[in-house]
Amino acid sequence: MGETSATVTLNGNQVSCPVRSGSVGPDVIDIRKLYAQTGAFRSTRLHIDGKLRFRYHLY
Question: What is the DSSP annotation of 22-36?
Fold first, then answer.
């Protein structure tokens, strides 16, 4: 079975991002490739329940 992907267009740039499935909850789009190719996001480090988390903001 092939990998599922979503095509995202941002400021005229098209990027194909993989879709990930977990054992619980909805499928999600992995935006790491989108960030790497467009640089349109800024991340904020958060600590939630003692674990390091990241929040991404689109600019």
Answer: -SSS--EE--HHHHH
